[in-house]
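Practice problem: predict the structure.
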Amino acid sequence: MSVQSKINPLITLDYIVQADENKLFDRKSAKIKASDLAMHISAFANAEGGTIAIGVDDKTRKLEGVKGCDEKKINDFILAPKEYCKPMPRYEEEFLDFVNDKGAADRVLLLHIDASPDQIIRTINDSTFLRIGDRTKELKGEDLRNLEYSKSIRHYEDECNLDATIEDLDEELLERYRGILQADGVPYEQLLSARGFIKKQGGTKRLTNAAVLLFARNIQQFYPNCRIRFVRYDGTYAKTGTDINIIRDKNLDFPILRIIEKAKDFIATQLREFTALDKKTGKFQIVPEYPEFAWLEGVVNAVTHREYAMTGKYILVSMYDDRLEITSPGKLPNIVTVDNIKETRYARNPRISRVLTDFGWVRELNEGVKRIYADMEKFFLDDPIYSEPEQSVKLTLKNNIVMRNMRQKDYAMGKIGEEIWLQLDELERQMLVYMASNTVVSRAALEAFTNRTNKTITIRLNKMIDMGIIKANGNAHDPKRSYSIIYKTSTK
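Answer:
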Protein backbone atom coordinates (compact mmCIF):
# COMPACT_ATOMS: atom_id res chain seq x y z
CA MET A 1 0.00 0.00 0.00
CA SER A 2 1.37 3.40 -0.96
CA VAL A 3 2.36 5.86 1.77
CA GLN A 4 -0.58 8.23 2.33
CA SER A 5 -0.89 11.81 3.53
CA LYS A 6 -2.65 12.18 6.89
CA ILE A 7 -3.78 15.70 6.01
CA ASN A 8 -5.10 14.95 2.52
CA PRO A 9 -5.64 11.17 2.08
CA LEU A 10 -5.89 11.64 -1.69
CA ILE A 11 -2.18 12.40 -1.79
CA THR A 12 -0.07 9.23 -1.81
CA LEU A 13 3.36 8.45 -3.22
CA ASP A 14 1.64 6.70 -6.13
CA TYR A 15 -0.54 9.77 -6.73
CA ILE A 16 2.48 12.10 -6.63
CA VAL A 17 4.23 10.04 -9.28
CA GLN A 18 1.29 9.06 -11.49
CA ALA A 19 -1.27 11.89 -11.34
CA ASP A 20 -1.24 14.78 -13.75
CA GLU A 21 -0.82 18.20 -12.21
CA ASN A 22 -4.20 19.83 -11.71
CA LYS A 23 -6.00 22.68 -9.98
CA LEU A 24 -5.32 21.13 -6.56
CA PHE A 25 -1.88 19.56 -7.04
CA ASP A 26 1.58 20.54 -8.28
CA ARG A 27 5.02 18.94 -8.03
CA LYS A 28 8.37 20.72 -7.76
CA SER A 29 11.98 19.59 -7.80
CA ALA A 30 14.00 20.00 -4.61
CA LYS A 31 16.36 22.13 -6.73
CA ILE A 32 13.80 24.95 -6.80
CA LYS A 33 14.51 28.11 -4.83
CA ALA A 34 12.20 28.60 -1.85
CA SER A 35 11.37 32.09 -3.12
CA ASP A 36 10.17 30.60 -6.43
CA LEU A 37 7.48 28.65 -4.58
CA ALA A 38 5.73 31.93 -3.71
CA MET A 39 3.86 32.26 -7.00
CA HIS A 40 2.44 28.75 -6.69
CA ILE A 41 1.50 29.26 -3.04
CA SER A 42 -0.28 32.50 -4.00
CA ALA A 43 -2.06 30.74 -6.86
CA PHE A 44 -3.43 27.91 -4.72
CA ALA A 45 -4.43 30.21 -1.85
CA ASN A 46 -6.34 32.52 -4.20
CA ALA A 47 -8.19 29.58 -5.78
CA GLU A 48 -9.43 26.50 -3.96
CA GLY A 49 -6.28 25.59 -2.07
CA GLY A 50 -4.00 22.71 -3.01
CA THR A 51 -0.87 20.69 -2.34
CA ILE A 52 2.69 21.28 -3.57
CA ALA A 53 4.90 18.18 -3.48
CA ILE A 54 8.59 19.16 -3.20
CA GLY A 55 11.20 16.59 -4.07
CA VAL A 56 9.78 15.31 -7.36
CA ASP A 57 11.28 15.97 -10.78
CA ASP A 58 8.86 18.25 -12.69
CA LYS A 59 9.39 16.48 -16.02
CA THR A 60 10.22 12.84 -15.30
CA ARG A 61 8.09 12.63 -12.11
CA LYS A 62 10.93 10.76 -10.45
CA LEU A 63 10.98 10.88 -6.67
CA GLU A 64 14.15 12.84 -5.81
CA GLY A 65 13.37 13.48 -2.18
CA VAL A 66 14.77 16.31 -0.11
CA LYS A 67 17.53 14.32 1.61
CA GLY A 68 20.10 16.04 -0.60
CA CYS A 69 19.05 19.46 0.74
CA ASP A 70 20.59 20.87 3.91
CA GLU A 71 18.36 21.63 6.88
CA LYS A 72 18.37 25.37 6.12
CA LYS A 73 16.93 24.86 2.62
CA ILE A 74 14.28 22.45 3.89
CA ASN A 75 13.37 24.99 6.55
CA ASP A 76 13.20 27.69 3.84
CA PHE A 77 10.74 25.51 1.91
CA ILE A 78 8.58 25.11 5.01
CA LEU A 79 8.65 28.83 5.79
CA ALA A 80 8.09 29.93 2.16
CA PRO A 81 4.39 30.84 2.68
CA LYS A 82 5.39 33.03 5.62
CA GLU A 83 8.56 34.56 4.21
CA TYR A 84 7.59 35.11 0.57
CA CYS A 85 3.83 35.76 0.63
CA LYS A 86 1.70 38.50 2.14
CA PRO A 87 -0.37 38.05 4.10
CA MET A 88 0.73 34.55 5.08
CA PRO A 89 -1.88 31.99 3.98
CA ARG A 90 -2.95 29.18 6.27
CA TYR A 91 -0.99 26.02 5.50
CA GLU A 92 0.48 22.82 6.92
CA GLU A 93 3.68 20.99 6.11
CA GLU A 94 4.04 17.23 6.02
CA PHE A 95 6.69 14.68 5.04
CA LEU A 96 6.06 11.38 3.26
CA ASP A 97 8.81 8.82 3.79
CA PHE A 98 10.08 6.55 1.03
CA VAL A 99 13.20 4.59 0.04
CA ASN A 100 15.06 6.19 -2.84
CA ASP A 101 16.66 4.33 -5.76
CA LYS A 102 19.92 4.07 -3.78
CA GLY A 103 18.13 2.16 -1.05
CA ALA A 104 18.35 5.04 1.43
CA ALA A 105 15.55 6.57 3.48
CA ASP A 106 14.27 9.82 1.97
CA ARG A 107 11.30 12.15 2.18
CA VAL A 108 8.97 14.22 -0.01
CA LEU A 109 7.86 17.52 1.51
CA LEU A 110 4.20 18.46 1.11
CA LEU A 111 2.92 22.00 1.56
CA HIS A 112 -0.86 21.89 2.00
CA ILE A 113 -2.13 25.40 1.16
CA ASP A 114 -5.61 26.39 2.38
CA ALA A 115 -7.95 28.45 0.22
CA SER A 116 -8.16 32.10 1.25
CA PRO A 117 -11.85 33.05 0.79
CA ASP A 118 -11.76 36.61 2.13
CA GLN A 119 -8.35 38.01 1.25
CA ILE A 120 -5.92 37.98 -1.66
CA ILE A 121 -2.53 36.34 -1.10
CA ARG A 122 0.25 38.14 -2.96
CA THR A 123 3.98 37.53 -3.26
CA ILE A 124 6.33 39.91 -1.43
CA ASN A 125 6.96 41.75 -4.71
CA ASP A 126 3.19 42.47 -4.97
CA SER A 127 2.45 40.00 -7.76
CA THR A 128 -0.84 38.07 -7.62
CA PHE A 129 -1.38 34.57 -8.99
CA LEU A 130 -4.32 32.22 -9.46
CA ARG A 131 -4.43 28.46 -10.05
CA ILE A 132 -6.40 27.77 -13.22
CA GLY A 133 -6.47 24.10 -14.18
CA ASP A 134 -2.88 22.85 -14.05
CA ARG A 135 -1.40 26.31 -14.60
CA THR A 136 -0.29 29.12 -12.32
CA LYS A 137 -1.34 32.40 -13.89
CA GLU A 138 -0.35 35.92 -12.90
CA LEU A 139 -3.31 38.25 -12.68
CA LYS A 140 -3.24 41.83 -13.87
CA GLY A 141 -5.70 44.52 -14.86
CA GLU A 142 -9.29 43.36 -15.23
CA ASP A 143 -8.48 39.79 -14.14
CA LEU A 144 -7.05 41.09 -10.87
CA ARG A 145 -10.04 43.38 -10.30
CA ASN A 146 -12.41 40.45 -10.83
CA LEU A 147 -10.51 38.45 -8.20
CA GLU A 148 -10.81 41.39 -5.82
CA TYR A 149 -14.55 41.57 -6.50
CA SER A 150 -14.96 37.83 -5.89
CA LYS A 151 -13.27 38.12 -2.48
CA SER A 152 -15.17 41.32 -1.62
CA ILE A 153 -11.94 43.27 -1.28
CA ARG A 154 -13.20 45.62 -3.94
CA HIS A 155 -16.90 46.27 -4.56
CA TYR A 156 -17.86 46.98 -8.14
CA GLU A 157 -21.05 48.63 -6.92
CA ASP A 158 -19.02 51.31 -5.10
CA GLU A 159 -16.90 52.34 -8.08
CA CYS A 160 -17.83 55.50 -9.95
CA ASN A 161 -19.70 55.58 -13.24
CA LEU A 162 -17.96 58.17 -15.41
CA ASP A 163 -20.84 58.72 -17.84
CA ALA A 164 -24.13 58.92 -15.95
CA THR A 165 -25.51 61.98 -14.20
CA ILE A 166 -28.42 62.38 -11.82
CA GLU A 167 -30.57 63.44 -14.79
CA ASP A 168 -30.17 59.90 -16.17
CA LEU A 169 -31.97 58.41 -13.16
CA ASP A 170 -35.65 57.52 -13.01
CA GLU A 171 -37.38 60.21 -10.96
CA GLU A 172 -40.33 57.97 -10.13
CA LEU A 173 -38.01 55.39 -8.57
CA LEU A 174 -36.12 58.08 -6.69
CA GLU A 175 -39.40 59.47 -5.36
CA ARG A 176 -40.46 56.02 -4.15
CA TYR A 177 -37.11 55.60 -2.44
CA ARG A 178 -37.40 58.97 -0.76
CA GLY A 179 -40.85 58.02 0.50
CA ILE A 180 -39.64 54.67 1.87
CA LEU A 181 -36.90 56.48 3.80
CA GLN A 182 -39.41 59.07 5.01
CA ALA A 183 -37.17 61.80 3.64
CA ASP A 184 -39.80 64.01 2.00
CA GLY A 185 -38.32 67.27 0.79
CA VAL A 186 -34.72 66.05 0.90
CA PRO A 187 -33.03 66.72 -2.49
CA TYR A 188 -32.25 63.58 -4.45
CA GLU A 189 -28.52 64.41 -4.57
CA GLN A 190 -28.36 64.78 -0.81
CA LEU A 191 -30.30 61.55 -0.32
CA LEU A 192 -28.02 59.57 -2.66
CA SER A 193 -24.88 61.04 -1.09
CA ALA A 194 -26.06 60.08 2.39
CA ARG A 195 -26.52 56.47 1.27
CA GLY A 196 -23.12 56.28 -0.44
CA PHE A 197 -24.42 56.45 -4.02
CA ILE A 198 -22.52 59.63 -4.91
CA LYS A 199 -18.76 59.92 -4.43
CA LYS A 200 -16.10 62.43 -5.26
CA GLN A 201 -13.52 61.45 -7.83
CA GLY A 202 -10.87 63.98 -8.73
CA GLY A 203 -12.94 66.73 -7.13
CA THR A 204 -16.03 65.83 -9.21
CA LYS A 205 -19.17 64.25 -7.73
CA ARG A 206 -20.09 61.07 -9.56
CA LEU A 207 -22.79 58.43 -9.28
CA THR A 208 -21.64 54.97 -8.29
CA ASN A 209 -22.35 51.86 -10.34
CA ALA A 210 -24.89 50.82 -7.73
CA ALA A 211 -26.85 54.06 -8.12
CA VAL A 212 -27.10 53.66 -11.89
CA LEU A 213 -27.87 49.94 -11.74
CA LEU A 214 -30.69 50.59 -9.28
CA PHE A 215 -32.26 53.80 -10.58
CA ALA A 216 -31.31 54.32 -14.26
CA ARG A 217 -34.07 55.41 -16.59
CA ASN A 218 -32.44 53.59 -19.54
CA ILE A 219 -30.28 50.81 -18.10
CA GLN A 220 -29.11 49.55 -21.51
CA GLN A 221 -27.36 52.86 -22.10
CA PHE A 222 -24.93 52.09 -19.29
CA TYR A 223 -25.11 48.36 -18.44
CA PRO A 224 -26.28 46.08 -21.29
CA ASN A 225 -25.64 43.09 -19.03
CA CYS A 226 -28.27 44.19 -16.50
CA ARG A 227 -30.98 41.96 -17.88
CA ILE A 228 -32.81 38.70 -17.39
CA ARG A 229 -33.21 36.37 -20.34
CA PHE A 230 -36.05 33.85 -20.12
CA VAL A 231 -35.86 30.81 -22.41
CA ARG A 232 -38.52 28.12 -22.47
CA TYR A 233 -37.70 24.76 -24.09
CA ASP A 234 -39.99 22.08 -25.43
CA GLY A 235 -38.66 19.00 -23.64
CA THR A 236 -36.18 18.26 -20.90
CA TYR A 237 -32.97 19.47 -22.56
CA ALA A 238 -31.81 22.12 -25.01
CA LYS A 239 -31.34 21.17 -28.65
CA THR A 240 -29.38 23.08 -31.28
CA GLY A 241 -29.25 23.66 -35.01
CA THR A 242 -32.21 22.46 -37.03
CA ASP A 243 -33.55 20.67 -33.95
CA ILE A 244 -33.62 23.79 -31.80
CA ASN A 245 -36.53 23.51 -29.37
CA ILE A 246 -36.88 27.01 -27.95
CA ILE A 247 -40.56 27.96 -27.83
CA ARG A 248 -40.20 31.27 -25.95
CA ASP A 249 -37.28 33.66 -25.72
CA LYS A 250 -37.77 36.91 -23.84
CA ASN A 251 -35.32 39.58 -22.65
CA LEU A 252 -36.15 41.81 -19.69
CA ASP A 253 -33.96 44.93 -19.79
CA PHE A 254 -34.67 47.11 -16.76
CA PRO A 255 -32.87 48.69 -13.82
CA ILE A 256 -32.67 46.51 -10.74
CA LEU A 257 -35.61 48.17 -9.00
CA ARG A 258 -37.92 47.33 -11.91
CA ILE A 259 -36.50 44.07 -13.24
CA ILE A 260 -37.71 41.88 -10.36
CA GLU A 261 -41.31 43.02 -10.71
CA LYS A 262 -41.17 42.60 -14.50
CA ALA A 263 -39.69 39.11 -14.13
CA LYS A 264 -42.32 38.15 -11.57
CA ASP A 265 -45.17 39.18 -13.86
CA PHE A 266 -43.75 37.53 -16.97
CA ILE A 267 -42.55 34.22 -15.52
CA ALA A 268 -45.92 33.73 -13.82
CA THR A 269 -47.54 33.69 -17.27
CA GLN A 270 -45.22 30.88 -18.42
CA LEU A 271 -45.79 28.43 -15.59
CA ARG A 272 -48.16 25.54 -16.18
CA GLU A 273 -51.07 25.17 -13.82
CA PHE A 274 -53.23 22.47 -12.26
CA THR A 275 -56.41 22.41 -10.20
CA ALA A 276 -56.33 21.77 -6.46
CA LEU A 277 -58.70 22.17 -3.53
CA ASP A 278 -58.05 25.05 -1.15
CA LYS A 279 -58.11 23.56 2.36
CA LYS A 280 -59.39 26.78 3.93
CA THR A 281 -62.22 27.65 1.54
CA GLY A 282 -63.15 24.16 0.32
CA LYS A 283 -63.13 25.53 -3.22
CA PHE A 284 -61.04 24.51 -6.19
CA GLN A 285 -58.36 26.92 -7.31
CA ILE A 286 -55.61 27.12 -9.91
CA VAL A 287 -52.14 26.30 -8.50
CA PRO A 288 -48.85 26.86 -10.41
CA GLU A 289 -46.43 23.99 -10.96
CA TYR A 290 -43.83 25.57 -8.67
CA PRO A 291 -44.47 27.47 -5.42
CA GLU A 292 -44.26 31.14 -6.29
CA PHE A 293 -41.97 32.01 -3.41
CA ALA A 294 -39.36 29.45 -4.50
CA TRP A 295 -38.80 30.71 -8.05
CA LEU A 296 -39.31 34.39 -7.18
CA GLU A 297 -36.80 34.23 -4.33
CA GLY A 298 -34.40 32.55 -6.76
CA VAL A 299 -34.76 35.49 -9.14
CA VAL A 300 -34.39 38.02 -6.29
CA ASN A 301 -31.20 36.34 -5.06
CA ALA A 302 -29.79 36.24 -8.59
CA VAL A 303 -30.44 39.96 -9.10
CA THR A 304 -29.12 40.89 -5.65
CA HIS A 305 -25.94 38.83 -5.51
CA ARG A 306 -24.81 38.45 -9.12
CA GLU A 307 -21.41 39.73 -10.24
CA TYR A 308 -22.24 42.87 -12.23
CA ALA A 309 -18.57 43.39 -13.15
CA MET A 310 -18.76 40.38 -15.51
CA THR A 311 -19.51 42.17 -18.76
CA GLY A 312 -21.39 40.23 -21.42
CA LYS A 313 -23.08 38.03 -18.80
CA TYR A 314 -26.74 38.15 -17.78
CA ILE A 315 -29.17 36.26 -15.58
CA LEU A 316 -30.64 33.30 -17.45
CA VAL A 317 -33.93 31.66 -16.50
CA SER A 318 -34.35 28.37 -18.38
CA MET A 319 -37.66 26.50 -18.26
CA TYR A 320 -37.84 22.83 -19.23
CA ASP A 321 -40.70 20.36 -18.96
CA ASP A 322 -39.35 18.97 -15.69
CA ARG A 323 -37.38 21.84 -14.12
CA LEU A 324 -36.71 25.56 -13.85
CA GLU A 325 -33.10 26.81 -13.78
CA ILE A 326 -31.98 30.27 -12.64
CA THR A 327 -28.34 30.98 -13.52
CA SER A 328 -26.57 34.07 -12.21
CA PRO A 329 -23.10 35.39 -13.23
CA GLY A 330 -20.36 35.00 -10.63
CA LYS A 331 -19.58 32.24 -8.15
CA LEU A 332 -21.05 32.28 -4.66
CA PRO A 333 -19.63 35.23 -2.73
CA ASN A 334 -17.00 34.89 -0.02
CA ILE A 335 -17.82 32.32 2.68
CA VAL A 336 -21.03 31.00 1.08
CA THR A 337 -20.88 27.52 -0.50
CA VAL A 338 -23.46 25.23 -2.09
CA ASP A 339 -23.31 23.18 1.13
CA ASN A 340 -23.90 26.00 3.63
CA ILE A 341 -26.09 28.31 1.54
CA LYS A 342 -29.13 27.38 3.63
CA GLU A 343 -27.57 28.76 6.80
CA THR A 344 -24.98 31.30 5.62
CA ARG A 345 -25.69 34.76 4.31
CA TYR A 346 -23.25 37.13 2.67
CA ALA A 347 -24.00 40.02 0.31
CA ARG A 348 -21.66 40.54 -2.63
CA ASN A 349 -23.39 43.87 -3.29
CA PRO A 350 -24.30 45.21 0.18
CA ARG A 351 -25.60 48.60 -0.98
CA ILE A 352 -27.81 47.07 -3.66
CA SER A 353 -28.99 44.50 -1.13
CA ARG A 354 -29.82 47.25 1.37
CA VAL A 355 -32.00 49.12 -1.12
CA LEU A 356 -33.80 45.94 -2.20
CA THR A 357 -34.43 45.23 1.47
CA ASP A 358 -35.88 48.75 1.84
CA PHE A 359 -38.17 48.02 -1.09
CA GLY A 360 -39.27 44.73 0.50
CA TRP A 361 -37.66 42.33 -1.95
CA VAL A 362 -34.72 40.96 0.03
CA ARG A 363 -35.29 39.08 3.27
CA GLU A 364 -32.81 39.16 6.11
CA LEU A 365 -31.15 36.31 8.04
CA ASN A 366 -31.21 33.98 5.05
CA GLU A 367 -34.84 33.09 5.70
CA GLY A 368 -35.52 33.21 1.97
CA VAL A 369 -33.36 30.20 1.07
CA LYS A 370 -34.75 28.22 4.00
CA ARG A 371 -38.28 28.91 2.80
CA ILE A 372 -37.43 27.79 -0.74
CA TYR A 373 -36.61 24.39 0.75
CA ALA A 374 -39.76 24.40 2.88
CA ASP A 375 -42.11 25.42 0.07
CA MET A 376 -40.71 22.85 -2.35
CA GLU A 377 -41.28 20.16 0.28
CA LYS A 378 -44.89 21.31 0.76
CA PHE A 379 -45.43 20.87 -2.97
CA PHE A 380 -44.08 17.29 -2.76
CA LEU A 381 -41.11 18.39 -4.90
CA ASP A 382 -37.38 17.65 -4.64
CA ASP A 383 -35.13 19.94 -2.62
CA PRO A 384 -33.72 22.85 -4.62
CA ILE A 385 -30.26 22.21 -6.06
CA TYR A 386 -27.51 24.84 -6.01
CA SER A 387 -24.44 24.40 -8.21
CA GLU A 388 -21.59 26.53 -9.61
CA PRO A 389 -21.05 25.81 -13.32
CA GLU A 390 -18.58 27.96 -15.26
CA GLN A 391 -18.16 30.95 -12.93
CA SER A 392 -21.87 31.19 -12.15
CA VAL A 393 -24.43 30.08 -9.60
CA LYS A 394 -27.37 27.93 -10.71
CA LEU A 395 -30.54 27.18 -8.78
CA THR A 396 -32.50 24.20 -10.11
CA LEU A 397 -36.12 23.65 -9.10
CA LYS A 398 -37.42 20.28 -10.21
CA ASN A 399 -41.04 19.68 -11.11
CA ASN A 400 -41.28 15.92 -11.48
CA ILE A 401 -45.03 15.30 -11.54
CA VAL A 402 -44.52 11.53 -11.51
CA MET A 403 -42.43 11.75 -8.35
CA ARG A 404 -44.93 14.16 -6.81
CA ASN A 405 -47.71 11.62 -7.31
CA MET A 406 -45.55 8.85 -5.88
CA ARG A 407 -44.81 10.90 -2.78
CA GLN A 408 -48.47 11.70 -2.28
CA LYS A 409 -49.26 7.98 -2.52
CA ASP A 410 -46.50 7.13 -0.04
CA TYR A 411 -47.87 9.77 2.31
CA ALA A 412 -51.41 8.38 2.04
CA MET A 413 -50.22 4.79 2.48
CA GLY A 414 -48.34 5.87 5.58
CA LYS A 415 -51.60 7.12 7.06
CA ILE A 416 -53.34 3.74 6.92
CA GLY A 417 -50.55 1.17 6.64
CA GLU A 418 -49.30 -0.85 3.68
CA GLU A 419 -51.35 -3.95 4.57
CA ILE A 420 -54.66 -2.11 4.27
CA TRP A 421 -53.44 -0.12 1.25
CA LEU A 422 -52.93 -3.32 -0.72
CA GLN A 423 -56.58 -4.32 -0.11
CA LEU A 424 -57.90 -1.23 -1.95
CA ASP A 425 -58.61 -0.79 -5.65
CA GLU A 426 -57.13 2.05 -7.72
CA LEU A 427 -60.12 4.41 -7.28
CA GLU A 428 -60.09 4.01 -3.51
CA ARG A 429 -56.38 4.74 -3.45
CA GLN A 430 -56.92 7.89 -5.54
CA MET A 431 -59.55 9.04 -3.06
CA LEU A 432 -57.21 8.43 -0.12
CA VAL A 433 -54.33 10.27 -1.81
CA TYR A 434 -56.62 13.26 -2.23
CA MET A 435 -57.89 13.02 1.34
CA ALA A 436 -54.35 12.72 2.72
CA SER A 437 -53.49 16.08 1.14
CA ASN A 438 -56.54 17.75 2.69
CA THR A 439 -57.70 17.71 6.31
CA VAL A 440 -61.34 17.03 5.43
CA VAL A 441 -63.08 16.66 2.04
CA SER A 442 -66.66 16.63 0.82
CA ARG A 443 -68.20 13.98 -1.38
CA ALA A 444 -68.69 16.57 -4.11
CA ALA A 445 -64.96 17.38 -4.04
CA LEU A 446 -64.10 13.70 -4.44
CA GLU A 447 -66.54 13.39 -7.36
CA ALA A 448 -64.87 16.35 -9.08
CA PHE A 449 -61.36 15.05 -8.36
CA THR A 450 -61.98 11.52 -9.63
CA ASN A 451 -64.56 12.40 -12.29
CA ARG A 452 -66.82 9.62 -10.94
CA THR A 453 -70.56 9.61 -10.15
CA ASN A 454 -72.16 10.31 -6.78
CA LYS A 455 -73.23 6.67 -6.49
CA THR A 456 -69.75 5.29 -7.19
CA ILE A 457 -68.09 7.62 -4.69
CA THR A 458 -70.71 6.88 -2.03
CA ILE A 459 -70.16 3.12 -2.36
CA ARG A 460 -66.40 3.53 -1.98
CA LEU A 461 -66.77 5.88 0.99
CA ASN A 462 -69.10 3.48 2.81
CA LYS A 463 -66.69 0.60 2.16
CA MET A 464 -63.75 2.48 3.62
CA ILE A 465 -65.86 3.59 6.62
CA ASP A 466 -66.70 -0.07 7.27
CA MET A 467 -62.99 -0.93 7.03
CA GLY A 468 -62.20 1.71 9.62
CA ILE A 469 -59.96 3.68 7.24
CA ILE A 470 -61.99 6.89 7.15
CA LYS A 471 -64.71 8.52 9.19
CA ALA A 472 -67.71 10.67 8.31
CA ASN A 473 -68.06 14.05 9.96
CA GLY A 474 -71.79 14.81 10.35
CA ASN A 475 -74.87 12.63 9.76
CA ALA A 476 -76.03 11.25 6.42
CA HIS A 477 -78.51 14.12 5.90
CA ASP A 478 -76.06 16.90 6.67
CA PRO A 479 -75.34 18.86 3.43
CA LYS A 480 -71.90 19.82 4.86
CA ARG A 481 -70.93 16.23 5.69
CA SER A 482 -67.23 15.64 5.18
CA TYR A 483 -64.79 12.78 5.39
CA SER A 484 -61.29 12.37 6.79
CA ILE A 485 -58.73 9.62 7.24
CA ILE A 486 -58.44 7.81 10.56
CA TYR A 487 -54.78 7.72 11.54
CA LYS A 488 -53.09 4.50 12.50
CA THR A 489 -52.58 4.08 16.23
CA SER A 490 -48.84 4.63 15.82
CA THR A 491 -49.31 7.92 13.94
CA LYS A 492 -48.79 11.03 16.07
